[in-house]
User: Which sequence fits this backbone?
């Protein structure tokens, strides 16, 4: 029995907690330097967080129990400070729990939706019934200098065949629909191309950058290389701004895999690529990239964050140090023992 | 004012530097130290002018890029120091604090002078009220840690009685509350902008490491009675971490977070496919 108590004391003691905290700090510093992308997912690091959770959880619980036993006393400044410390430590514990819940039960992924199309959210997040997101329009709002001021995805949500409403997603303004959140993450364009064969046959396609258009009756193919919304000679293949002030399509023509030439075409121009074979770039069709996620741990982590912030302010702003630090913190503690996490747990 | 007037920063820098020299040189001479206070205050006013200039130029609070952050950070540090000196009547930390203020402004001039004139509108990701409070609390926290480090340097050099101990503890405690606030507000903002409140990017991680070292200090100071040399070294080490979190992460590590260069934000201009 004595050894159980010993172990309990060891894992719930402040000394252990501080050692863990120091180790976590040290490991994080080394981790960001050497393996910034993977270190924080390793089991070693997760184990450290688990130990910290255990330690602080027990420590805070003990403190809470002790505090409740003594709740008869009136709420002086010191009691408020004690409550602050409890909130603060409990907040850290809750944040750790929230993060763990998320890592086991949360989901997230990217959805790419072309204007006018719809995609089932279940591709990235398990849902009870199908929830479809339809992109009604993607718009960029520009500043006077042509730099982007905001990106908007206008979406509709469809459950089964029923429309559940229209929403506008933009950067810093995610959509929140029953635990599913969608964030404006990126965007891009498909290029609408038309090819005309020697017999007058027409093919029309929306192609991604890098894709080829094949036209019947010729060995030649056209590669949609890049869409440049605001072409300017001194910017080369980069767009001067994202605003479509001077749009060009950079394309290349191949014959049996061999590059014949490149060009930059404006919209609507009929370009001859072979004898009586033409290609016309007609415009772009935008697509949006949304980050979609569900995080059942978020409310816990958020509550923890609020507790942490409230607690730290209560505890520190009411730090029991005498007027402007004339009186030492330690002497104050001797004068008025702060019933604390301390008692019997060191 | 339609353009930035770099003279304000230069004048503030020279005034801070002279104040520092006077504080160091005049530790035995009351007149010189009084001059140092006047010089600091004058530098503080020019530092403020530089901030107001930026604010008018951009039409928002000067808290959105690296140089604005440094100007604010320096200004709040000097503000805190001036309040401290007026109330405590102690001047021994003046030399160190003003030297740090000088170096901070010097880094504005050398590392990010281009940003002083930059009036380009904010990126969509930065357009959030959370950004303002996040950066403001960070600047306040960093300033507190700077002042505490200045006082700790004096503690380290002096022998015998250490009257500044509790003052350092108090300042660190309040700055720690600010840093906690800043980190939580940053997490709230990241959740809204990127859909994840913590990503272990270098900036976040180093802010956490900084937070941890001060948490250790607060515990050890009160519970294990860490006073004097050990405590001072810890406060100074914390300040070095503060500097690394700002400069190191932005300039040494392949900065992910922050205003300087953020791939997550850069994708907005670079990615069209
Ligand atoms: C995760 C990071 C932690 C933070 C941010 C934190 C923060 C704080 C702060 C700010 C104080 C007040 C210090 C003061 O002014 O007296 C405090 C006190 C305390 N903490 Fe922590 N702490 C952390 C982890 C821990 C751990 C792991 C333990 C041990 C299990 C612990 C046990 C205590 C104890 C016993 C006190 C003293 C309460 C009192 O003064 O009555 N803390 N903590």
Assistant:
């Amino acid at each position: 029995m004595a050894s159980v108590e010993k172990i309990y004391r060891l894992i719930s003691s402040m000394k252990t907690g501080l050692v863990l905290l120091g180790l976590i700090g040290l490991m994080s510093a080394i981790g960001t330097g050497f393996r910034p992308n993977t270190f924080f997912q390793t089991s070693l690091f997760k184990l450290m967080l688990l130990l910290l959770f255990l330690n602080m959880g027990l420590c805070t619980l003990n403190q809470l129990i002790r505090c409740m036993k003594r709740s008869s006393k009136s709420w002086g400044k010191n009691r408020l400070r004690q409550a602050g410390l409890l909130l603060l430590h409990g907040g850290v514990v809750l944040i750790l729990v929230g993060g763990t819940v998320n890592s086991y039960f949360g989901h997230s992924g990217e959805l790419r939706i072309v204007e006018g199309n719809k995609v089932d959210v279940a591709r990235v997040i398990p849902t009870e019934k199908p929830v479809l997101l339809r992109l009604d329009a993607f718009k960029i709002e520009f500043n006077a200098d042509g730099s982007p001021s905001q990106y908007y995805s206008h979406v509709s949500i469809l459950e089964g065949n029923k429309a559940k409403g229209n929403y506008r997603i933009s950067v810093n303004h995610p959509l929140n629909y029953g635990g599913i959140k969608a964030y404006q993450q990126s965007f891009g364009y498909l290029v609408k191309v038309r090819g005309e064969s020697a017999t007058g046959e027409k093919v029309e396609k929306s192609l991604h950058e890098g894709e080829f258009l094949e036209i019947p009756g010729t060995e030649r193919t056209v590669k949609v290389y890049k869409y440049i919304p605001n072409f300017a000679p001194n910017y080369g293949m980069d767009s001067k701004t994202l605003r479509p002030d001077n749009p060009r399509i950079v394309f290349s023509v191949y014959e049996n895999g061999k590059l014949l030439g490149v060009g930059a075409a404006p919209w609507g121009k009929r370009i001859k690529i072979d004898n009586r074979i033409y290609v016309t770039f007609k415009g772009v069709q935008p697509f949006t990239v949304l980050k979609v996620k569900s995080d059942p741990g978020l409310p816990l982590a958020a509550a923890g964050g609020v507790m942490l912030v409230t607690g730290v302010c209560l505890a520190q702003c009411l730090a029991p140090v005498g007027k402007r630090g004339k009186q030492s913190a330690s002497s104050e503690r001797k004068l008025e023992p702060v019933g604390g996490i301390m008692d019997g747990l060191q | 004012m339609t353009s930035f007037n770099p003279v304000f920063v230069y004048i503030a820098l020279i005034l801070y530097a002279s104040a520092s020299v006077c504080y160091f040189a005049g530790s035995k001479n009351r007149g010189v130290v009084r001059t140092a206070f006047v010089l600091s205050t004058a530098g503080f006013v020019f530092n403020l002018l530089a901030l107001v200039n930026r604010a008018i130029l951009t039409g928002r609070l000067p808290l959105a890029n690296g140089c604005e952050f440094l100007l604010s950070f320096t200004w709040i540090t000097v503000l805190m120091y001036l309040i401290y000196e007026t109330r405590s009547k102690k001047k021994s930390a003046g030399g160190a604090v003003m030297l740090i203020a000088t170096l901070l402004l010097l880094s504005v001039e050398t590392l990010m002078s281009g940003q002083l004139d930059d009036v380009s509108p904010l990126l969509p990701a930065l357009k959030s009220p959370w950004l303002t409070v996040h950066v403001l609390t960070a600047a306040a926290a960093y300033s507190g840690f700077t002042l505490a480090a200045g006082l700790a340097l004096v503690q380290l050099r002096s022998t015998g009685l250490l009257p500044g101990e509790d003052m350092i503890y108090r300042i660190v405690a309040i700055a720690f509350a600010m840093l906690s606030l800043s980190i939580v507000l940053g997490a709230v903002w990241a959740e809204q902008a990127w859909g994840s409140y913590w990503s272990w990017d270098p900036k976040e991680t180093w802010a956490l490491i900084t937070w941890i070292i001060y948490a250790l200090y607060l515990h050890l100071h009160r519970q294990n009675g860490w006073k004097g040399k050990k405590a001072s070294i810890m406060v100074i080490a914390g300040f070095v971490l503060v500097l690394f979190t700002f400069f190191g992460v932005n300039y040494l590590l392949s900065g992910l977070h922050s205003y300087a260069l953020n791939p997550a934000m850069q994708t907005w201009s670079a990615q069209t496919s």
Notes: Chain A is about 35% helix and 35% strand. Residues A 14, 17, 21, 55-56, 59, 85, 88-89, 92, 315, 319, 338, 340-342; B 173, 215, 218-219, 222-223 surround protoporphyrin IX containing FE (CB under 6 Å). The helical segments of chain A are 2-12, 14-34, 43-69, 77-105, 298-317, 329-335. Chain A has three domains: 2-106+305-319, 108-188+290-294, 189-285.
